Amino acid sequence: MQLGLSIHFEDNGVIRGILGFSDGSTISSSASNHDMVLRSEANLLLTTNTGNVALTLDTSQNATFAGNLTVEGADVTIT
Description:
The chain has strands at about 5-10, 15-25, 35-40, 45-50, 50-55, 65. It is mainly β. The strands form 2 sheets. It has a 3-stranded antiparallel β-sheet, with no helix packed on it. A 3-stranded antiparallel β-sheet has the order 4-5-6, with no helix packed on it. It is globular, with a radius of gyration of 16 Å.
């Protein structure tokens, strides 16, 4: 069995994004063994419908939600 399998998305030979299964040392230094990783070398956008951006994760790991954010549960911390 081969671990650390991934799909690389390249632009002119430069990796711009990766989707893959980590073996604990590839794709992301913070990924543990058996983690599934989606990595972008720029902002990461999650879209709905015909490209409406629902969530943006920027390169500083800030999250921007396009709509309402509903949190269920008693323990919520916002900093």
